[in-house]
Amino acid sequence: MIFESIKNQIKDVKKIAFVTGAGISQESGIPTFRGKGGLWRNHDAMKLATIDAFYENPKLVWEWYNERRENIFSVSPNQGHKAIADLEKYVKVVILTQNIDGLHQKAGSSEVLELHGSIVKIKCTVCDFKDEIMTKFSEIPPLCKCGNILRPDVVWFGESLPEEIWKHAIVQASQCDMMIIAGTSLVVSPANTLPIYAKQNNAYLIEINPEKTEMSSEMDLIINDTSANVLPKIVSMFKE
Ligand code: APR
Hints:
The protein is an alpha/beta fold. The protein has helices at about 1-10, 40, 45-50, 50-55, 60-75, 80-85, 105, 165-175, 195-200, 225-240; strands spanning about 15-20, 90-95, 110-115, 115-125, 130, 150-155, 180, 205-210, 220-225. It has two domains: about 1-30 and about 75-115 and about 160-240, TPP-binding domain (Rossmann fold), CATH 3.40.50; about 30-75 and about 115-155, SIR2/SIRT2 'Small Domain' (2-Layer Sandwich), CATH 3.30.1600.10. Helix content is about 35%, strand content about 20%. The strands form two sheets. It has a six-stranded parallel β-sheet with strand order 3-2-1-7-8-9, sandwiched between helices. Strands 5-4-6 form a three-stranded antiparallel β-sheet. It is elongated and about 60 Å long. Bound molecules: adenosine-5-diphosphoribose.
């Protein structure tokens, strides 16, 4: 029944925007932030993911990021990421992701907007230095050549999203005719406004999440299952 209604929708679809969050990488072995097993259940976000927390205890924050870097570098994309990458063969696809793990790109997706930065990227807290480092840091906090502390180039609570990426994300959301929202609780702003932009364009909204979210009532279709289960089924319909 559920998949029948998608079949009817995909006939005329020209552009699909995906909005993804931590849940899409859960089946790759990366914990989510909220809900069962979520990182924010055992860790205080305000002590690990704000600029004030970082200046107060850069070593603690870097230890946490170092652990996450190690985990993320060791895992692989799952069937959900792979299905989205495969979908590019059949329709225009853009991914608007809150994830910093790079797994969409690893799976082969070509248009990925990283709204919250990337775990491989670092930047200086003072000068303009930026880099991409694929290994764990042995000395923490790592220092810039200018002598100041380097920080992860990710978006922390209270910080703005990278301006150009966010503008581009709004344009993409406003132009899609289908939006698939997978593995995000949609509680974090402004990423959680993207479905509203899509809706204003009369896009068909599909939510894939084992749990209900605060925006489930706005969706045209809700599939309460995991993304690695559902996405390959959706993509297979484009091949028929
Ligand atoms: N498949 C699909 N969805 C899943 C799966 C799965 N296998 N497992 C869990 N989920 C769902 C959960 O039910 C939850 O609704 O994924 C969602 C994950 O929500 P969050 O942990 O809040 O992750 P996210 O929405 O990406 O968080 C947004 O908050 O602190 C941050 O900056 C961080 O980018 C992150 C932002």
